[in-house]
Amino acid sequence: MQADQLQQLRETGQISLSLLATDDMGEILGHIAITDAQTANNTQEITLWHSPDADLVMPLLDEAESTLFELGYSLLKIAPSDVAEKAEFAPLDPDDTWWYKQLAAATST
């Protein structure tokens, strides 16, 4: 199902950013597709993601956030989940059905 959704988003020009994680042989290990949420504040939405390897989720999210920030976007939204909470997404209001994250410049630790 995700491959069909990804193809449809790509063919209709709705993807703002698409990131792939691959192994050395080019096999896709995970992906994230981000689309314009079509809101007044230019929010970007994580529309699709897939990674059977849980260790790849956070690096993919970090790279997406960093790239979107560099492109001038300031807010990212996602459906609530344990992974979203771990990535520090949260509802802006208690009634929100989406969780958000304000994007900021990456800092090294």
Walk across the major sheet and give the strand order.
1-2-3-4-5
* SS content category: alpha+beta
Main beta sheet: 5 strands, mixed
Give the count of helical stretches: 3
Measure the end-to-end span. Answer: 38 Å
Oligomeric nature of the chains? single chain
**Integer count of domains:** 1
Q: Tell how many strands the DSSP assignment holds.
A: 5
Q: What is the name of the CATH class?
A: Alpha Beta
| Reported CATH architecture | 3-Layer(aba) Sandwich
Average residue-wise pLDDT: 85
Shape estimate: globular
What CATH calls the topology is: Aminopeptidase
Which band does the percent of strand residues land in? 25-35%
Look at the structure and name the CATH superfamily: Gcn5-related N-acetyltransferase (GNAT)
Helix content: 25-40%
SSE run: HEEEHEHE
Uncertain spans, ≥5 residues at pLDDT below 50? none
Return Rg in Å: 14 Å
